[in-house]
Amino acid sequence: MVNAAASPPRERRERSRAQALKPGVLGQAKLNPFGDLHTLQHLSARLARGMRGVFEPLLREEVRAWAEPLSVQRFADYRAERPDQLTAWLPLGMDDRTALLVLDGKFVLELLDLFFGGTGCAPAEMPREFSPAAEAMVARLGEMVARPLTAAWEPLARVTFTIGRCEANASMLADFDGEDAMIVTRFGIAPGQGRPAFVDLVYPVTALKPHGTALTGKVVSKPAAEDALWQTALTRAAMNIRFPVRSVLAEPTIRLSKLMALQPGDVIPISFGQDVPVMVGNDRLGTGTVGTSNGHAAIQLTSLASLEGLTQ
């Protein structure tokens, strides 16, 4: 069950970051040409925040989501490391290259049960293949993940992600070879205080080489180019905001005994000078003279105060 209670759940992969990104051994081909991958790790942290919006509607409760430390390994080693059970391997087209979204089959079947109104239980005996409904759920998950994934990549590069055909057997993936170097980004998804499930996004090193310059930088975000149309629309909208303008002609004071004795028809005398204050909200705009304009009471401004207080 997705949100089954468990004794203190293990929420991190067993490998430490030092192990995950250890330097190459003499005589071996260099798997990671990008250095420390700080930029990709930061990108994964951004994506983890977007993962909450993907899985909270499916799990029907608040979700904790985080990004695990990156690892770089050969595809054959990654496959051997995964549990020997049903797994969804979903290719994600990354422009003209391909990444992989990898989901535990048990997690997929739990989500499928929830989708059809169940309690989130997977079968006691796991099947060897996905049903058409489960494959549709994997495709749906891929489409939902692609949206925050595109947004997370936006500060780095404009990348379009498309959904491929789900495979239950990794050997059926045509674009991946066992010797291919892969960068594995893993995300923990935990409903409430429940036991986490893990979702892997696997990038072939060759798929990231076109973005090598950006990936070796230390900062993901970059200033966006000014959009003249957006700036104009924003200015126009700001200029149409309405503010209350008022003028206080007089503020007489009377004793409480007289206030309590007032009757309809009583007169309260007031007096005011030639100029009266003109206010915008709680700020003084200036002073003006009371008069009429086109048959209506009006105030003619005679002086303006500093606008400094209005712009703070």
UniProtKB/TrEMBL annotation:
Pfam families: FliM (PF02154), FliMN_C (PF01052). It is a peripheral membrane protein. Residues 239-304 form the Flagellar motor switch protein FliN-like C-terminal domain. Its main location: other. GO terms for cellular component: bacterial-type flagellum basal body; plasma membrane. One of its GO terms (biological process) is positive chemotaxis. Transmembrane segments: none annotated. InterPro entries: CheC-like_sf, Flag_FliM, FliN-like_C, SpoA-like_sf. FliM is one of three proteins (FliG, FliN, FliM) that forms the rotor-mounted switch complex (C ring), located at the base of the basal body. This complex interacts with the CheY and CheZ chemotaxis proteins, in addition to contacting components of the motor that determine the direction of flagellar rotation. Belongs to the FliM family. This is Flagellar motor switch protein FliM. The gene is fliM.
